[in-house]
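Researcher: I'm preparing a figure for a lab meeting and need a structural model of a single chain. I don't have an experimental structure, so a prediction will have to do for now. The sequence is pasted below. Please return the structure as tokens so I can convert it later.
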Amino acid sequence: MVTALIKSLSILTKPIREAQWSNGQSTQTSLVLALQRNLSELRESMSAGEELEEARRLLEEVRRDSTWFCSDANDLTWCFVQECLLLLLCLARHLNRLVEAFNQIPAAPNPATPEAAPPLPPDVLSVAQQKTLGAVLQFVVTLGLCPYLAPGVGVALGLRSAFGAAVEGAVRHDVAPTGERRLLITANVLLEVSALSSLATPVFTRHLGDIMAALCQLAYRPQRPEGDSTKSNKGLTVEERKTCKEALHSLLGKVYQPIVIKELLVLQGGPKQGSSGSRGGCPGGGGKALSQAPPWLRRLCGQLLSDRLMQPQGVQAVVRAILEGTGGGDSDWRKCDAVAKILAACPQQSLSAECYYSQVCPQVLELLHFKDKLTAQQFQRVATRAAFIMVQDRPEFAQRFLLFPLLSPLRRCAQGTGDDLSQDAVEEWELTRCIEDVYKICVVGNNPSEVLLKALADVYSTLFNLFCFTKQNVSHLRTSCQEILLWCLSHSERSASLLLLKRLCGLLGEVGGVRHGFQFSPGSEGGARLTVRELNSDEDDALYEKVSGEQWRVQCLVQLLEEMKDSDLPGEFFLLLLQDLTAVAAEQDEVEQEVNTSSMTLLELEQHLLGRAGGHGQRLALLQALAIMCEGLPHTQLLCKPTQVVGFIASMLQRACVSLERGTDSPVESQTLSMGIGLVATLLSGAAELTADDYSSMTALLPHLEQISQQHQEPVIQELASDLRATIATHGAYRPTTVPKTAGQHSTAHSLTQPAGHSSNSLPARPQVPSQSISHPKHTTDPSVTPKVKDFQTAGRIPNPGISEALRSKAFSECLLEACDLDVPTRAVALRSLTRSIRDGDEEALRNKEKLLTLFLENLEHEDSFVYLSAIQGLAVLADSFPEQILQRLLGEYQTGATVGPPKRERSLETRLKVGEVLMRACRAMGDLAPHYGRPLIGVFLSGTRDKDSSVRASSLSNLGELCQRLNFSLGPLAQELSMCLTALIKTDREAEVRRAAVHVIALVLRGLSDKTTQVLGDVLSELYRALKGVVRSDPDDVAVLHAQLALEELDDIMRRSIFPQQKLEKKIVVLP
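Model: Understood. Here is the structure written out token by token.
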């Protein structure tokens, strides 16, 4: 039956032969003749043969049941459409019966072939049958639907193809039934046919827009006035229009929403001003312009589109409808911007703006959560742009329905207390999604606004606490948190950013950010979650945890500022802290009045003590912030602009003025005044090119210089301050000789007393680096060789040609004397200066290498780590410069534990281990010369493994590992001895640290030899493998087991590369003799 019906349909849609087109007839006439011939051929086929007998009987049955069928129609095209509709109904009814029978009797599974596919449903059509069905549907829509659409409703046939004009001419509108009735009949039959899923696909995939246009016209087109009630213009009944409305809304609800939205956009027609558009390109494509739709249809499509938008997943459907099929590029960006504007604008059909945004804003946030790469990128563009427009145009609704849900997890982290443990903590997925969404909207979208920055400022402390937590752990949220924090600091107003930084440092009270009793904990997927904090009963531990947490927060803040390399914010914040420090120094000058506590109540006394403690806490927090900033940030970032340098000098001079008013003269205050005046003199002497703006900024120094010139006790300082004030006031026109002279003395003194790279312990001494590296103007008159401010760092490491040889020799002698000074910082700095002299090849230092060797060895016994580490570094540099002489002396000291030269005396165990550290650094510095100088070292290290002290044995093994991994093939003759030593220590030594060191030596040797392992250690490899396996199986020390596992992994990688070498695609060219 299905085959017969499909054959009948194929007869109706038989194409016109080319011979009929070439008879000189018009296209319209040829079309009518072809339709008439196909109708006649169908009737003859059904009445003549038995093949179509069943189809004929079913057709007659359907014809009798169809009340709309008109047997006396005078329009040939409508007769053709009626036959097609009847055959489609026959096919739909027959397939429906087959499907019902198929569903009533389920197919029994075949036990012989359980993997066989289930039987196909009977309504499945072949490819050829689907092609025939598609042709019939195209005829039905073209002849029975489109010609009866009102102008502007849908896409006219003339805009689709040239053949469409011929079709419109072949249709007769002056005969019964009317056009509205024909349109209703065709639409109803197509909807009835599409009730079967197998027939709905070809109907809706190609003709959905035409069916929607027909239903819109039938249901919503205004009725014509009664005076124009001609036969051809009679409308539909109220019931019929109601049925069409219901059918339209049912169709819109069950079809894929992006397709529905595309078709509604097409039905809305072209713009009023005649801009171009197209059917496929209404979402995107090129073609002829769409005609303007009538006003009732535009209003209807707007209402329907608003309904689609405000329903669940409506925003996603709108975005998909417009962006699906785009491949990126400029047009993609423009479309994303257009969609965002549509989403951000409240439609006129909406009940209220509040209702609209309450439904749309959550869906906009959902656009950020897609995983597909291309889809996620497009949806993210739309979401970020829509969020920005909403925040800008409707801030009150954006704050309530967009930003509040967006930042809700971070708000929940800070709100409430931990007293009620029943409160829900913030889960990991919530925090992760929140951080990712904020990153996409703020950092990727990069459209700062006041409302958005204000909302972020409310949760900034929580976000910063989360960032500090991620810095202590491995978390994928670290980078996102850091970028969000930097974005907020960069785009906020400078005063707000500085206030925010002070609050994070704890200078404005409690930092907050996480509610009391809760803390961030690692999540199972690399994120973070908010959990209840375990109470610490020990007060000392709780205090230590609090203090260390505050210090860690300040360190994280400094690391955050370090990333702002192109911003002035770190320098301005540093100057703000210096101003606060000056205010603290001024407060200390005020003598606290004695308070009579006897007359206070307990509450008043408690408040008084808490106030004093809070003030001390603020001062400590300020000093801590300054200290960490001076240690963590380079001076080029703290003082990157001349105005900041001037601000720094002003803060120093202000502190000096406070000291003058107080009448004290401490070394720190004297050094502060000396540094400030020296920096001013250096700037004014020509070390840096000063502009008129720089001189204008330096006018802030005039009151302080005037106060110093009047109140300082030294006449020289008074005169110098007066001269500097005159130079600044005249913008350099008047420059006394004392200014360049002071600048030269200041630079020379600092270059001799403080080596490059060393900073003083006091807080203001950190920014001395610029003054150290400014050259001496008195030695040159050429302005072209005057160093600039940007050359401060490099100039500090270049030897100054202005310093004479005698002066350099004097400096070396002073360093030797200071290396024996009792003051620890002085001694350590002198040792590092001598080390630098050896590294730089200073002739005076190289001539006195024996003195330096003795000096470094003696300082090894010093108890302060700053001193003996400087001595270790100096000995390592000496051994690298003179390996043959120095290494022999060090080996003797290490092997015997006593001094080599006279007088003989025993070294302590700690000193012997420090010599071992020197030898290890020397081994690392040997490089390719290790096989040459390593022979005597190996003997000493192997003998050291038999020492009675376990620390010496472990030190010898550590040095042995560092040396052996650099010997390469030179290790071959010593492989047996090395293997026996290591395996014996692993099996017999009782000390865990010695066994650890022995196993670690094997790992270092394997790592150093790499692919050469099988050649160098081929004879002992199996012994080493068995020793490592024995450690893994039976050694009680967990650390030794871990080292053995790492060594086995190294060995496994080596053997895999040896057995399965990497395949290389290469060509070998061989020259034949």
